[in-house]
Amino acid sequence: MIARSRQVALALTVALAAGAACQARDHEPPGPGRPAPSLAEPRGFTLVASGDVLPHDTIIDRARFDAGGTGYDFRPMLAGIRSVVERADLALCHMETVYGANGDYTGYPAFKSPPEVAPALATTGYDGCSTASNHTLDDGADGIRRTLDALDRAGVRHAGSARSEEEARTVTVLQAGQAKIAHLAYTYDTNGIPLPEGQPRAVNLIDEGRILADARAARNAGADVVVVSMHWGTEWQDAPDDRQLTLARNLTAARSEGRPDIDLILGTHAHVPQAYEKVNGTWVIYGMGDQIAGLMTNHQGAKDPRGNQSTLGRFTFAPPARPGGRWEVTKAEFVPQLFDVDAGRVVNLNRALAQGADVRAVRDRIRDVVLSRGAAQDGLVMGE
């Protein structure tokens, strides 16, 4: 069995304007004993997605310690989830912050993270990240440029922010097996920071009409599956708010020629895990929670452990039963995670529990929230 089909993955871009042709970059050939997939027989793929990477000062300090005091190493933080991420055909993260340079790194409230985060994400197995958040403009256009440059150097694709108008009009499409997956990303706000002068599309803001237009353009240009990352919701609220619910209903209801315009919605921002739900036949994760963050303080001023709890979503897609049909999710899973702020490590809670760690209570709390809108009845299960 091929453990990781994105060994043959292509990085594609599809112009949103009038469906320009896709162009593939060089890719690795199948390795020994790994025959190329047959074009005549499409096969399915697995997609995993995880929540906010939010390096507070303590996280930056930990990465410096893990690097031996010289530079920054974020790889050990993510090592506990690497086996889940790297086995997927396609893995998407959420890079909430922008990167600084030359040691000018800061946590809350205006984040500038070390660019060493990017290669750590790549080493963990992530193929792409959403980069639209309320912190995308924390260091203006320079912050966006440094962030996207670093992700490019690491080979991690990105969606949601842009260095130029041309880039803003281009949607990232990644290959998983024989399926082309369009990744779109949007944020509710930028903490009131205005867009850089002359760059009206430096970051994608949530607008229902624009999201659907982008999704349809990507589909028309050849995307088989359209995934939308949404930085939305009310912080510290376990339940999705009214705007999330309304947008989820409207976006998943939209169809073109009888086919849904959007195939999966991935939510971030709330700092806490939120429910998964199948809406109009499409899976929606309202909020995955913070995958990496320092010890969090909620709006009541209390240290809140929920800010270090999260989930990783894993979806298995099967090829359409007929040409031009929808790639269907045949298996939906969630993996409960915890960021151990003392150890500075992401923990796969089910694996930790199997190894004897006393984490059942937090695992079960996350499970209850995830299933709170009836997702179990639609087949969502807890994975490892």
TrEMBL record:
Please tell me whether the keyword tRNA-binding is annotated for this protein. no
Keywords from the UniProt entry: Hydrolase, Signal
- What Gene Ontology molecular function terms does this protein carry? hydrolase activity
Instruction: Give the residue range of the signal peptide.
Output: 1-20
Q: Name one Pfam family in it.
A: PGA_cap
UniProt lists the family membership as follows: Belongs to the CapA family.
Provide the protein name. Answer: CapA family protein
What InterPro entries has UniProt attached to this entry?
A: Capsule_synth_CapA, CW_Biosynth-Accessory, Metallo-depent_PP-like
- List its EC numbers: 3.1.-.-
Q: Tell me the ranges covered by the Capsule synthesis protein CapA domain, including all copies.
A: 46-295
**Where are the residues of the annotated region Disordered?**
23-42
